[in-house]
Design brief:
By secondary structure, this protein is mainly alpha-helical. Helices cover 50% and strands 3% of the residues. It folds into two domains: 3-72, lambda repressor-like DNA-binding domains (434 Repressor (Amino-terminal Domain)), CATH 1.10.260.40; 94-155, no CATH class. It has a two-stranded antiparallel sheet. The two termini are 42 Å apart.
Length: 156
């Protein structure tokens, strides 16, 4: 998706008219239209204002990443003294197997919390890395035993 299409989707998705965005950026409606139609690109100052306005990263607008949140979010404290950036750096330091185990663990935690993680796919396009076990009701076995059968012993 190119810059113009991303800008259009962000603007429409937030219910903002071209005129409103033009007033914010101190440009004409025609300039916004030209951005969205790929005729012109914004200068760096305008690109920065757009990223701030829509709370996205400039890299997202420039199609350098699919990560939509602003880079400032990496400094956001998640729990205790750990920021999102700290966690991301720790994940990147893990081996491939360690990252695979982390995905399994996150999937298990989200199942226990009754929430769903966004779809996580493995090396084969779209292949799930982990499918949480479904506890059969009425069989008398507890869930921890079922999870223990799916996960390696050292991960419990």
């Amino acid at each position: 998706m190119d810059f113009g299409e991303k800008l259009y989707r962000l603007r429409v998705g937030r219910g903002i008219y071209q005129k409103q965005l033009a007033v914010y950026l101190h440009v004409s409606v025609g300039t916004i239209s030209n951005y969205e139609n790929g005729i012109h690109s914004p200068d760096l100052k305008t690109l920065s204002k757009l990223a701030s306005y829509f709370s996205v990263s400039a890299d997202y607008l420039l199609d350098r990443t699919d990560y939509i949140s602003p880079v400032d979010d990496l400094g956001r404290e998640l729990i205790g003294q750990y920021t999102a950036g700290d966690i991301m750096n720790a994940i990147l330091e893990l081996s491939t197997e360690g990252r695979r185990d982390l995905v399994k663990y996150l999937t298990m935690l989200s199942a226990c919390d009754g929430t769903d993680l966004p779809p996580l796919s493995g090396p084969e396009h779209g292949a799930p890395l982990f499918i949480p076990p479904v506890a059969e009701s009425g069989d008398g076995e507890d869930e921890e035993k079922d999870l223990g059968e799916v996960l390696p012993d050292d991960s419990l």
